[in-house]
Design brief:
With about 475 residues, the chain is an alpha+beta fold. About 50% of the residues lie in helices and about 10% in strands. It is elongated and about 95 Å long. It starts with 13 loop residues before the first helix and ends in a 6-residue tail after the last helix.
Length: about 475
């Protein structure tokens, strides 16, 4: 990449001509900066978010742009930050006046004052995000690269424009962003910058949990999330954010018996599942599926290392983790809990696939059976080719058996063939515990294959069970 090159092709969208006209009207110098420029140079597709910095009022520029656009889009003004935003043709553009910043030790919110373009580029988090393209009429498309960001793009390096120690101390969220960009772009964090993250790791505690989770989600949604989680662990950030994961790290040995490193196993599972789904919450389930192993780890002289009940313990830990990180305590969390709780079920039944076991699996997983199977298949991380093939073949058998059982017994959206109302009518009784006992017995009989999932068989079973309870049918 050459600094002398003009990048007019990046600015071919008509919105940039409009911003240039507005800048001329207001006698302002304006520039496209940040992610749009970076992603264009990396050929990462069409950006939908554009940041424009102007040496003057960003709010005034946004309003002038809106006047010049045919549809006169609404301008959202954020006076506190001196920024404004508008949407045009599915593109969201944020306008801000060039500024310089200063920080205090207890906050990542800076004191802001007007500045030059150079001041604004100095405050950017990374050299690759400080690249700017001119929107001035005379130099339209010229690139301004004061920190050799073009070289860092070519070398695939994450580097701060100024002293990384100051950069990360001033705004500790930048540590998460560095790791996120390294993960998304498959770049390396420059060594001094990596050391500075480790040095300033405790500063992450002043960042709101919501902002941290936002970065975690972006790491999880990348092509290879393990890159980010390894960096989070190596720098010490992970122990502040997700201590449940760092607790899995390490291999213990007693009397010559070892267990696998469940931290790195987890990262393999997350990478595996990332190849098959973009579902953020299923990826969270993969990340947390073994967190119950640390508190349940025991050594038995007879059978070696055990993690009895780790799925149940892990599902309970999910709630505490979501609450601590201020993540949604809704159906998303319940989905993750369910996946963690059931994460070993298909593996257990794969070695001996019976109809009743498959019926129970489908019944318990309900509408999430496909997600559960995807998680369990990702959980196969053995490096032994024969075992790998064997496990996957077993899962194919489970899947085939699921199809057969579902076609025959219709368990996935199971509804009892005999209702509580029918039980009361048949035995002429009012609501009572016997109704629950009979309904549960019918369900168990169907799941065990004792009776088919149809009304007549369930009705006859109901009569028999009622008689056992001393009830008389009318």
């Amino acid at each position: 990449m050459s600094e002398a090159k003009n990048y007019k092709e990046a600015l071919k969208h008509s919105i940039f001509d409009t911003i240039t006209k507005a800048s001329i009207n207001l006698k302002l110098d304006s520039y496209v900066i940040g992610g749009f420029v970076r992603d264009f140079l990396l050929q990462r597709g069409d950006a939908k978010d554009i940041d424009v910095v102007t040496v003057g009022s960003g709010i005034a520029l946004a309003k002038e742009v809106s006047k010049l656009l045919p549809n006169k889009p609404k301008v959202q003004v954020f006076k506190t930050y001196g920024t404004a935003m508008l949407k045009s043709d599915d593109i969201e553009i944020e306008f801000v006046g060039a500024r310089k910043e200063s920080y205090t030790e207890d906050s990542r919110n800076p004191t802001v004052e007007n500045g030059t373009l150079e001041d604004d580029q100095n405050r950017r988090d990374f050299t690759i995000n400080a690249l700017a393209l001119s929107l001035s009429q005379e130099t339209f498309g010229a690139i301004l690269d004061p920190f050799n960001g073009l070289t860092d793009l070519s070398s695939k390096i994450i580097r701060t424009p100024l002293d990384p120690d100051i950069t990360y101390s001033d705004d500790p969220l930048r540590m998460m962003r560095a790791i996120r960009f390294a993960t998304q772009l498959n770049f390396k964090i420059e060594s001094n910058s990596l050391k500075a993250i480790t040095k300033n790791k405790d500063r992450i505690q002043i960042i709101t949990r919501e902002r941290i989770v936002d970065e975690l989600n972006k790491i999880l949604l990348s092509d290879k999330p393990s890159i980010g989680f390894v960096l989070l662990e190596q720098t010490g950030l992970l122990s502040y954010i997700l201590p449940e994961l760092t607790a899995l790290k390490g291999i213990d040995e007693v009397e010559g018996q070892k267990h696998k490193d469940n931290f790195y196993h987890t990262l393999e599972v997350v990478d595996n599942i990332a190849e098959n789904t973009n579902d953020l919450w299923l990826r969270w389930a993969a990340l947390l599926h073994d967190i119950g192993k640390a508190p349940t780890k025991r050594f038995s002289k007879k059978i070696g290392w055990t993690f009895h009940g780790h799925e149940f313990v892990g599902s309970k830990m999910v709630f505490k983790l979501f609450k601590r990180l201020k993540m949604p305590l809704n159906e998303k969390m319940k989905f993750v809990q369910k996946m963690v709780l059931m994460s070993s079920r298909p593996i257990v039944i794969a070695s001996g696939v019976t109809d009743s076991a498959v019926r129970r699996l489908v019944f318990d997983a309900g509408e999430y059976i496909e997600e559960l199977m995807t998680l369990c298949e990702a959980d196969i991380t053995t490096k032994n080719p024969k075992r790998f093939k064997k496990y996957h073949n077993n899962f194919k058998i489970v899947r085939q058996k699921m199809v057969e059982v579902e076609e025959r017994d219709q368990i996935r959206n199971f509804q009892p063939p005999v209702t509580g109302e029918k039980i009361m009518e048949t035995f002429n009784i009012k609501p009572s515990r016997e109704i629950g006992i009979i309904k549960e017995a019918i369900k168990e009989a169907i799941l065990e294959g004792e009776i088919p999932n149809d009304y007549e068989a369930a009705y006859q079973f109901m009569i028999k069970k009622g008689e056992e309870l001393g009830l008389t049918s009318c």
